[in-house]
Design goal:
By secondary structure, the protein is of the alpha/beta class. The protein has helices spanning 28-35, 94-106, 116-123, 129-140, 144-154, 157-181, 186-222, 236-244, 287-301, 318-326, 347-353, 370-381, 397-418, 423-441, 447-454, and strands at 6-9, 18-24, 36-38, 51-58, 65-74, 85-91, 110-111, 224-229, 262-268, 271-277, 305-311, 332-337, 358-361. 47% of the residues lie in helices and 17% in strands. The longest helix is centred in the middle third of the chain and has 37 residues, at 186-222.
């Protein structure tokens, strides 16, 4: 498969020590020879693969020196895209790197589309679709655990398991074909029923095992939407600052200081939280504060985890009890804050209201209780099971949806055989399962979906 030669800046825009312009394609070395003048003066095609060379970028039209660079030369197929690749290492800066990019575009390269380097790796058979998606997951990972899940997927752990399951389905379908082609042999029919059920159940169990990891995997990939709620001045902003470990929110003794929703990503024991500090929920005549309260009620509906904060130094109010009612049936951790002050709250009543939730006491300004809170958050969703290094976690929403569809299809096949449905009907459901699993790794996927997936990547990747 031949493509034109693409180029893009592969490092973040802005000032830095180094910026990289990457080229990939059959003409990469020819374009490089036009603009690069090195110490040796020979063509890039003569350079040894995977070597780096000092020299200058020259405008071939004027002979003017544009940049002092180091150029990495990598010959296909032993490259990320399986094409010839050069990477021009420039001084980091907006002007210099853009001049180099414009020069290679002027001399025959085309500006790469978002994710086009990774897309070529997929189209050229270097990686499959699930591994390609893991590249972006790795870039966006917010914790070590999320990074490890993405790395495992990039290395093909999920792909290998999916291929193994598809192979088992193919072997089962081969037995079905024998039964259809030779129906006069009774023992073949009996054997086919037995093999079909045995292998289908084994594949179903593996699919269901992957689905069971999906909730944790998706949390690691996307983060938990975590909302801090409570009456004004109970310590919600102090809690945000304690978890983020810096002063992101204004903390005062004046009720209603937080007027809007404040969002921040935070890593709690390897669990990524999209932490939302809300305006204190109460009845108020202040127009701006009232808008903040309404926004707080809205984000509450979309939350994965609620941190409900109470004031140890205040009596429990009707508004507090309304908050307990509002979060009924949700994952909630109740935090009784300001335990360094004299007690006024009825702690027994709080325990009764919190009977289905974890309860943690804190004195946030004194930095007390944070470790216990972090442990409560981690154990609520993972309970230590995420530590298993041999687990294959599914975190991508597209993969999860396809696995759920595949589970339904193979269950229909199993149910059909158990009820005595003709074997060729079960074959249809098994084939559908095989196709759905193939969509995860890109063996059977529409071109428009491929374009859509890679359009979400950054330029130069």
């Amino acid at each position: 498969m031949e493509f034109d030669t693409i180029a893009a800046i592969s490092t973040p825009m802005g000032e830095g020590a180094i910026a990289i312009v990457r080229l990939s394609g059959d003409q990469a070395f020819d374009i490089g020879d036009k603009v690069f003048k090195g110490m040796k003066g020979s063509s890039m095609k003569e350079f040894a693969s995977h070597t780096i060379h000092y020299g200058h970028i020259i405008d071939p039209d004027t002979g003017q020196v544009v940049e002092e660079v180091m150029v990495s030369v990598m010959k296909g197929p032993k490259t990320f895209t399986r094409e010839d690749i050069i990477e021009i290492n420039c001084h980091g800066g907006l002007v210099s790197v853009n001049k180099v990019l414009q020069l290679v575009l002027k001399n025959g390269a085309r500006l790469a589309e978002p994710g086009e380097f990774t897309k070529r790796a997929f189209l050229n058979g270097r990686i499959d679709l699930s591994q390609a998606e893991a590249v972006m997951d790795l870039i966006r990972a917010k914790t070590d655990r999320a990074m490890n899940v993405a790395l495992n997927q990039m290395e093909g752990r999920l792909s290998n398991l999916i291929r193994k399951l598809r192979q088992e389905i193919l072997e089962t379908l081969a037995h079905v074909e024998v039964n259809i082609d030779y129906p006069e042999y009774d023992d073949v029919e009996e054997m086919t029923h037995h093999v079909l059920l045995e292998k289908s159940r084994r594949v179903r169990d593996e699919i269901d095992k992957l689905i069971r990891t999906s909730e944790q995997g998706k949390i690691l990939r996307e983060g938990l939407s975590t909302v801090i709620i409570g009456r004004p001045n109970v310590g919600k902003s102090s809690l945000l600052n304690s978890l983020v470990h810096e002063n992101k929110a204004i903390v005062t003794d004046i009720p209603g200081t937080t007027r809007d929703v404040i969002e921040e990503y935070v890593n709690v024991r390897g669990v990524p939280l999209r932490l939302v500090d809300t305006a204190g929920i109460r009845e108020t005549e202040d127009i701006v504060e009232r808008i903040g309260v309404e926004r707080s009620r809205q984000v509450l509906k979309e939350a994965d985890l609620i941190l409900l904060v109470l004031n140890y130094a205040d009596e429990l109010t009707f508004e507090d009890e309304q908050l307990f009612e509002a979060v009924k049936g949700m994952d909630v951790i109740v935090i009784v804050n300001k335990t360094d002050l004299p007690q006024k709250i009825d702690i027994d009543k709080v325990r009764k209201l919190s009977e289905n939730h974890q309860l943690v006491t804190t004195a946030l300004l004194e930095e007390q209780g944070i470790d216990e809170l972090e442990e409560a958050i981690s154990s609520l969703f993972f309970a230590g099971s995420i530590e298993g290094g041999d687990m294959t976690y599914v975190s991508n929403s597209r993969h999860i949806a396809l696995l759920n569809q595949a589970s339904l299809a193979i269950n229909e096949a199993i149910d059909g055989v158990e009820m005595g449905t003709p074997i060729d009907i079960a074959q249809i459901d098994l084939t559908r399962t095989w196709e759905l699993l193939g969509e995860i790794i890109g063996d059977s996927v529409h071109e428009s979906l491929i374009d859509q997936l890679f359009s979400q990547f950054c330029l130069g990747k």
